[in-house]
Every structure is written in C-alpha cells, then in structure tokens.
Design goal:
Elements: H1 10-36, H2 44-69, H3 79-99, H4 109-120, H5 122-149, H6 154-168, H7 174-194, H8 197-214
Helix pairs in contact: 1-2, 1-5, 2-5, 3-7, 3-8, 4-5, 5-6, 5-7, 5-8, 6-7, 7-8
C-alpha cells in the first residue's frame, strides 16, 4: 500500500479518502459489535471473542498501514516528550472540569451509546475505552489525517483533525463538541511536537481513564 503524500494528484487524493473511509469502518467495528448485539448467558462468550478478535485485527492493520505511510521518522520518547504529555494531561483535565458542568445532561447520542455499553458490557467497555480506542483513534485522526492530507503543514493538519475529531463524536451539544475538539487539537500538537504516536496514545489513555472516574 503506497499512500505517500508527495503525489497530490486527484486520483491519489480519492484513493486516500477511500482508504480513510475503509479504515474508519475498521476502527469502528469492535464497538459496533457491542452496540448491535444483546448480551445473554448463551452468547456472551461469542460476543467477547468476536469483539477481541476484531479489535486485534483492526489494531494490527492500522499500525501496519501507519508504519508504511507516515511521512516522517518516528522519534524515541525523551524526557521532554513526557513533560509535554504531563502538561497536556493536566490541561485536558482542567478543561474537562470546566466544561463538564456546562454540558447537556440529556440528548447526547455519543454519551448515551457509551452508557448503554457500560450497562451491558462493563469489562469490554473499559478495555475498549482505555486500550483499544486510544490506539485506533490516534492512528486514525492524527496518524492518517495529518500525514496523508497535511504533510507540508502539520500544525494546520492538527487543527483540521481536531475539528473532525470533535464532529465524529456525534452530539448536538456544542460544549461537548468543543471539549472533544480541544482534546483533539492538544493530541495533534503532541503528535507534531514529539513525532511519536505513542505519546498521543499515552495522553489519550490518561484522558479516557480520568473521564471514566469523572463519569
């Protein structure tokens, strides 16, 4: 698979968009399995195995494609990288504390869907929210979007990926969108600064884990 960004022909852009759509569906497959199924004592093991197997497949495919298409060499995480992560984590937590009381308590489809998953699949939801989602979402929104479409302007790419990240967390609540867009922009900056997707994944993990405790 060759999606290197230096070829900016219309055909190549269309190929990138189609690949992005496919990878988005792949990234959404594990939680979709939980959303469309109704757990019972008879099918619980089947659901667990199906969820875990699709998650492993999506992780493998997405990591492999990122390694093939990232337009800069991955740098090792340094002490400075971890300082960036800590600063960003404190900032995100502060933003969540400020915006959470302003969010709508009803009518948020994204939160409602997560609430249903917690109710029916508490263990699998925690696995997805703290392990799978931080990896796949960072690869998709930062690794793919920024590298494929904004290789010559990474900061602008970070801003665009943040807006898309906010919009994809479907909600009619502008405050909820704002919180996700800010989170996405911070994650984009961390990716551009550290040149290592692992920094994003760590920060995303911290954010999701704190969100679970904040409710």
């Amino acid at each position: 698979m060759n999606l290197k960004p230096q070829n900016n022909s219309y055909l190549n852009i269309i190929g990138k968009i189609l690949a992005l759509l496919f990878l988005y569906l792949l990234q959404q497959l594990p939680p979709s399995i939980l959303t469309i199924t109704k757990p019972s004592s008879n099918n619980k093991l089947f659901i667990d195995l199906t969820f875990l197997s699709t998650a492993v497949i999506s992780l493998f495919v997405m990591i492999y494609i990122l390694k093939r298409t990232q337009n800069f060499a991955t740098k090792s995480l340094s002490s400075k990288s971890y300082i960036w992560i800590i600063i960003a984590a404190v900032f995100n937590y502060s933003i969540n504390l400020i915006l959470l009381p302003l969010m709508k308590t009803t009518g948020n489809s994204n939160v409602n869907a997560q609430t249903e998953l917690v109710k029916h699949f508490p263990v699998l939801f925690v696995i997805y929210a703290t392990i799978i989602a931080p990896i796949t979402e960072e690869i998709f929104f930062r690794g793919y979007l920024i590298n494929w479409f904004f290789p010559d302007n990474l900061y602008f790419g970070a801003a665009i990926s943040a807006i898309i990240f906010g919009l994809m967390h479907i909600s009619s609540d502008p405050i909820y969108f704002l919180s996700k867009a800010i989170l996405g922009f911070v994650l984009g900056l961390i990716y551009v600064k550290t040149k290592n997707i692992k920094a994003n994944i760590i920060l995303h993990f911290i954010n999701n884990l704190s969100a679970l405790f904040m409710g």
